[in-house]
Amino acid sequence: MENTIVLEERLARCERENDELKLKVEELSDFFENASMPLHWVDAKGIIIWANQAELDALGYEKEEYIGFPIKNFHADPEVIQDILYRLSNDETLYDYTARLKCKDGSVKHVLINSNVLRKDGKFVHTRCFTRDITDRQQEDQRKNDFLAMVSHELKTPLTVVASYIQILLKKKQKNTDDFGLNVLKRMEVQVKKMILMAHDFLNLARIQDGKLELNRIEFDIDQLIGEVVESSRLLTTIHTIEVSGCTGVVVYADQDKIGQVLTNLVGNAIKYSPQGGPIIIGCEKLGDKVRISVSDQGIGIRQSDQTRLFERFYRINSKSNQGASGFGIGLYLVSEILQQHNSKIEVKSVENQGSRFYFDLDGVSIADGVHPVIKKS
Ligand code: ADP
Q1: HSE of 202 in the Cβ direction (CA atoms, 13 Å)?
Q2: Which residues, given as ranges, of the chain have pLDDT below 50?
Q3: In the Cβ-directed half-sphere of 99, how many Cα atoms lie within 13 Å?
């Protein structure tokens, strides 16, 4: 009798626990099925084995048109999904990975993917993938970018015309001794040149955002380019000396205009962030197949903790010493992107209140055989 009571009590407890468990399972499955964020699982072969309603609604497919099919069928960029699956199968966790998905109506959605893999006994079971739609944000960014490209392009032409007229007037004025007029013209020339450089920077920024920054690599004399940058940079300052060290007859294989912009930005910064004046040195040395180019100043320097973020888009250091310096925080970002396209990297060594040295390497051309190593290999 007593045993029966104990058994009945146990049975009742088991039933209660079972009901609670069922409720939990129902709640959890509701959470995943009806969450407002699109979710899916993909197996080791890249097949979608489960997707929630938000994912189906976002892309416009019925369950039977989506689940059971390879995930690659729904990606607009085959190399992107290949990379995603490769990373996940190597146990990487993806954070805000950008991708483009194909909707049933033929449109394409820009998304951010966050994903990792469920493994059992070391074996790949399925991915846990969260997808966030950023199409609106992307379109807004695209509109801003198009606007930036258009404005900077439209500004470049009239500014270049004004700069050439100033040049003509300067040549005429130099023949007579109207000091005031000559000075005004020289100042105008400096300001117009600054505006042209800004327009170039904005145009390049827009091109990078669109993935359209194309390089036109040629073999050219880096000494000559450095000479041109020094000459035009000297116009921007009366309190700095700008000198060149170490270059003679060095030929590189790179995009001449873009490396000119890199140097102009680095020298412009060296001037801007050395408010007390002082020497600025552009160095150039051969290192095997490479040519190392550097720009050094004795200005305000950069704290160690700021040095890693300098090359981010729109990043400006917020410190007392550079409060007077104006800028948009795109110069070093452009430098870094342009050099990345050359398979190079901008590096910095700096000590606060003592100065900075920015440097990078370019592919050198062997004068002996007149052939660039890159050309030789291919
Ligand atoms: P901007 O000069 O327009 O702010 P940059 O991208 O060219 O933008 O530079 C980013 C930041 O890096 C600057 O705001 C400045 O604080 C710092 N910086 C760049 N060059 C130097 C330098 N030569 N010396 C000290 N600080 C520098």
Answers
A1: 21
A2: 368-378
A3: 29
Pairwise CA distance, residues 63 & 205, whole Å = 42
Tell me what pLDDT residue 372 has.
Answer: 45
Q: What is the pTM for the complete model shown?
A: 0.75
For the chain, the residue count is: 378
Q: Which tokens hold the place of 75? A: 């990606």
The pLDDT of residue 247 is 74
Amino acid in the structure at residue 242: I
- Pick from 61, 69, 39: which is nearest to 51 by CA? 39
**Which of 269, 318, 322, 334 is the best mutation target for the ligand 1 pocket, counting ligand atoms within 8 Å of the beta carbon and taking the most?**
269
In the reported structure, the alpha carbon of residue 280 is separated from the centroid of ligand 1 by a whole-number distance in angstroms of 15
- Please report the pLDDT score of residue 373 as a whole number: 45
Which residues surround ligand 1 with Cβ inside 6 Å? 269-270, 273, 297, 299-302, 310, 315-317, 322, 327-333, 356
DSSP for 270-330?
HHHT-TT-EEEEEEEEEETTEEEEEEEE-SS---GGGTTTTTSTT-----GGGTT----S-
Strand partners, 351: 355
